[in-house]
Amino acid sequence: MTRLRLILPLLALAALVAGVPIQPAVAQEPYPSRPISLVVPFPPGGVADLTARPVAAAVEKALKQPVGVVNKTGAAGAVGMQFVATSKPDGYTLLLALSSISIIPEADKLFGRPPAFTVDQFAPVALISADPTILAVRTESAWKTAKEFIEDAKKRPNQISYSSSGIYGTLHMAMELLSHGAGIKLRHVPYAGAGPALTALLGGHVDALASGPSVVLPQIKAGKLRALAGWGDKRVASLPDIPTFKELGYPEAEFYIWAGLFAPKGTPEPVLAKLREAARAGVADPEFKAAMDRLQTPIAFKQGEEFRKFFEADARRLADGVRKVGRVEQK
Amino acid sequence: MAETLQNLALGFSVALQPSVLLYAFVGCVIGTLVGVLPGVGPLAGISLLLPATFGLTATNAIVMLAGIYYGAMYGGSTTSILMRIPGEAASVMTCIDGYAMARKGRAGAALAIAAIGSFVAGTVSVIALMLLAPPLASFALRFGPPEYFALLLLGLLVLAYMSGGSMAKSLVMAVLGLLLGMVGIDQMSGYFRFAYGLVELGDGLGVVPIAVGLFGIAEVLATAGQEVPPTVLKPKLRELLPSRAEWRDSVMPIGRGTGLGFLIGIIPGSAHIISSFVSYAVERRLSRHPEEFGKGAVAGVAGPESANNSATSGAFVPMLALGVPSGPIPAVMLAALMVHGVSPGPLLITQQPELFWGFIASMYVGNLMLLALNLPMVGIFVNVLRIPYSLLYPSIIMFCVVGVYAVNGSVVDVWIALIMGALGYILRKLGFETAPIVLGAVLAPMIELALRQSLAMSDGRYSIFVSRPISGTLLAFGAALVLFNLVSWVVRGLDWRRRIPLDEKGENL
Fold first, then answer.
1. CA B108 to CA B91: how far, in whole Å?
2. Which residues of B fall within a CB distance of 8 Å from A10?
């Protein structure tokens, strides 16, 4: 019994610690007048986290208030995204999300689950980076070009396999958009993350992989992998000889791994304007540019209407992709 | 060879720079702390400290993070031995015999053997890493889903040897563990299983809350329920050192643990946890006194503690030689390299020799530091046992709750640990061992994913498991093991397990 009495206050303490960043704001005070938390729904060391840290540092400079990165992980990002979606819309809790923000609610819908959150619970602030995926195969494989790959896939439906970061994950969606655009059927082998997916391709357990350029570039330079084509509307700067699927006549195969800044919906317009301005100043910061350069992630800044359009078009494409993939049959 | 020595000299010239030494030391100290604290393991420790390394140079950052990783393996044994709480998941096996040794007044010896075993394993495995990284890395890549599945199946067979009591009881516990491992998103189809609308359960039940609950919290509850309170131990200084017999019984387990740990560490997956389970089972199988296991066999501490340390070096093989992560911890370390503009990949060793060889050399230095740090600490740590239980046990509960919360900042995890604590208490009252639950929960998601990935690769044909050389060999080995046991069982009529009294009341209840 005494033990129970001990546990309860400790739990209360734990809950208290969890609730620290949210304090009631005084209505009149100018924004921002206290520290801001930038929620990253993925663990430290992932793309989102590595992008968020220089973003936080740069925005901090512009807003003159501390911006702390909070990793709130779980369920492929759904936990952190849900947390921000239901946070107070006062501009003190922000979200750095990846493309998957549009996929998760759609997958929830597919399975008839009450969605953890919906995309219209967020107010888009700014797009920070956008990197098209690259189709990579092993150097010793027979396909020298994307054309050969697609023709072979047409001849042998469901024979060529590819790895992904997980079902309905970004790398899966990229490949599915290509499959539907080119009218081919590939065999999907999901892995638990982009790292294991790359390992599987290198080890010869699958035949192809759609991946962010920065991950496969060292392997391409070392002669282990070959890039066939990219999903962007422009060629990747570090791979100028690799065509885009758009050039090859598959405009449906357009996909980016992007990172964007969001606030909860209902955040007052003056606060959003300040945030946009801070983000614009932030991405122009030389230190930020250097940090993104080291990560080999190109900055792709969009804000306001421009970002909204990009986000909505992307969300439509991905929602469509998820629906086309549909539910995996339970055998 | 001359070239290796030359490179190593270059490495030491980097590793012995004052700043690199300092960060290696800081990493080792933090690692030891992270290992000692229940719940917080190396992954949480490295993740939390990753941002702090952004301001350092690439070498300093990687040296410090690596120090946390292998330092945690040293620290993890401390609370396992003294309080039966796994400091991190790879120390679960140490709880069994390490704690039994402590109850017999051999806590100092157990701690010392764990530290020395870790040191030997750490040092030998770095030599292996240094000499064999590139060829071993390409071998590791050949471990795809079918091979992994075969290996994990062998791991399941190992379960049968894990417990001292009845085999039926330990298999029941293993199945319960496998069931607990089913909670969460189905990786192959995206369905949620047993999540009951809780988004937090999407990732399943973590190994950390399960282990902390079943061992730490259940232990506190069980002790509180005893009619006669346990006597407070007063360890004497001359009892701190292992006896001659204990040394003799530890030498081979340390050697085997080192070899096993390194080989398992290379294979992508949560290797350091599995390596300690496998090592324990192997030691038990090879021991001339298997009945001692569970009652304070020093081999049950020496083997697993060496294996988990050796596995950390093994995990660096694919990371450094190929730039691919072999698990979540190397993945975070790869990210640390990327932040510093070092692109990890097959060319890392040739393009960044200072970084690679400095890293290798720092691991030699770091292991020495940890030995120097941990051996004298044995004398201090055993004094924990002098604390009256009315003060010690509430603090244990507090550390368990805080540790579990700190990993993901999730209150759901705390509840899982508390529920597991209650479950562990009931199971122990009924005479079940809880270690197989933890192994089951660790293995279930991996074995399922590997099986279904293999079938996705082969379009549903099971022949993939026997037609591939490595998985075929592993499966044949497993089949032989089962057959061998069946034959000896039939021939002898009785298994050695029968000779062991089924009830292990003594210190377990």
1. 17
2. 397-398, 401-402
